[in-house]
Amino acid sequence: MIDIHSHILPGLDDGAATIEEAIAMASCAIRDGTKQMVVTPHVKTRTYPSKQTILNTMANLQGVLQEKGIDLVLLGGGEYRIDPELSRQLAKGELLTINDKGRYLLIEFSDVAVPDYTVELFDEIIEQGVIPIIAHPERNSVFIEDHSRLYELLANGALAQLTSGGITGYFGEEIKEASRAFLEKGYVQFVASDAHNRSGQLAQFRPALREVKNLLGEQLGHRILVTNPRKMVRGDLMKANEFMKKVV
Ligand SMILES: [Fe+2]
To answer: What is the DSSP secondary structure assignment for residue 228, as one 8-state letter?
Structure first.
């Protein structure tokens, strides 16, 4: 399995606070069958970590895991808070796309807003050949209340990633319902742990994957859980869900 969204890098954000916690997270992930993990620390435009800091911290943790015989492969990335500056920073090579392939960029919104400039910003990113991945839309109240706001962005070329805790009910019933609705409407291309520590969402990852297969069936479940993450880390293009439904 490939987990495409995690906060395992120690000391960069509200994820793993120490190298010991990062090691514990890696051990739990391996035990659950995860072989590759994309590191996606929170990045806000004016408060780094920079691309180089992320890569250096990742290389350091990878070395420690190797020494300890923990066979988890780390891949670079970042979870970028939406900001009108993102497209300019991307053009200057300052952002770390998933696995540094220049194809997918993970972007998060606040829990309560979708800025007016989002469509334009996404267009500017897509014009650079990079596909915006919307992190956990099921936790944003605008998307929850009006699914067409999410659909608009997806129809325009973005893709969506749910978090495991949203699917299992870890964040409550409303978010669970939204997760289920987005899955059933074909809005979701990825499911990831968004793990911040050894328990929490990391422990929800396996149950969430089972739930996705129960809901969508073996074939589509396999695409979301296996095929799409593989394409993402390779930087390969993928097609949107052909059955995406327009509005509520
Ligand atoms: Fe995250």
So the answer is: H
- The answer as to CATH 3.40.109.10 being correct for domain 2-234 is no
- Cα(10) to centroid(ligand 1), Å: 14
Residue ranges per structural domain of the chain: 2-234
> Tens digit of pLDDT for each residue in 211-247?
999 999 999 899 999 999 999 999 998 866 555 655 4
Do 60 and 76 touch, CB atoms closer than 8 A? no
SS3 of residue 5 by DSSP: strand
pTM of the model: 0.95
**Cβ 15 vs Cβ 58: under 8 Å:** no
What is the 195 CA–ligand 1 centroid distance (Å)? 7
Query: Backbone phi, then psi, for 131, in 5-degree steps?
Result: -100, 120
Residue written as tokens 């009910």?
Answer: 169
DSSP state of 85: T
Residue 17 CA, ligand 1 centroid: distance in Å: 15
